[in-house]
Amino acid sequence: MSAPFRLTAGQPAPRQQSPRTCGAACAAVARMLVDPPFARWIVSGEGSPVPGAQGRDEAERFAAYEGVVRSRTNRFRRVGGGVNPPWPRALGTPPWGLRTEMQTYGSLPGTSYEFDALRPRGAGALARIHRRLTEVVVEGEPAILYVGNAQLPRHVTLILPGPVRGSLEVYEPHAGTVTDFGVDDFARRELALGGWRHPWLVIRPTGHRRARADETHRLQLPTFGRQPSAEPLQRSAQR
Predict the structure, then answer these.
(1) Which end of the chain has fewer CB atoms at under 10 Å, N or C?
(2) pTM of the complete model
(3) What are the DSSP calls for 43-97, one per residue?
(4) In angstroms, rounded to a whole number, what is the distance separating the alpha carbons of residues 36 and 214?
(5) 3-class SS at 54?
(6) How far, in Å, CA of 206 to CA of 114, rounded?
(7) Angle, helix 58-73 to helix 95-104, in steps of 10 degrees
(8) Rounded to whole angstroms, how far apart are CA atoms 133 and 34?
(9) How is domain 22-212 classified at the CATH fold level?
(10) Strand, helix or coil at 230?
(11) What is the residue extent of each domain of the chain?
């Protein structure tokens, strides 16, 4: 059996298999990080086949699953009713579709996501958002970052927890790389992610899943009465 799938800075990572599947690639990698049987199938073809993700090798299976993701994220009608807002096909994956994909497949069960618009923010606000990302992005709860030029969002990346507390890394699907995601380049709009510098939008965990888990854990703890003092036992032994 193959080892669990991990992303490591400086080591090759999966690459998007078409010019417009950066968002789908990020969602696929996010699922690989939280779903070991799925990751084994994509990487080595071991285990039960994943519907829609067949292929002769890792690249073909990854490309096939990108298509599965795009069919979900780019659909016109919402799951449960209603329609999605329009989104230019040239810009790839719509953020609302990718948010649903991350909540359903790309994170631990119970993780909720919300949007932060970045393009109109100043350097100070971006630095505060980066700090918030270091708090809510943890193992099994990555974030999505849209980047582009000064006019439009053009590319999608995946923000991951870094190797030490308070640090972040970013998966860039065009090159298939994982690098440090520091606050300075982010706040100054000097990113180098697939050739794009400007942060546009982040889809981040709310942190509520862990808050609910902690609350449930506390509620399930048994309640004991006051611990008996040792003094009465000592006095009894001296009689």
Answers:
(1) C
(2) 0.85
(3) HH--SSPPTT---SSHHHHHHHHHHHHHHHHT-SBPTTSSBPPP--GGG-S-HHH
(4) 25
(5) coil
(6) 6
(7) 120
(8) 19
(9) Cathepsin B; Chain A (3.90.70)
(10) coil
(11) 22-212
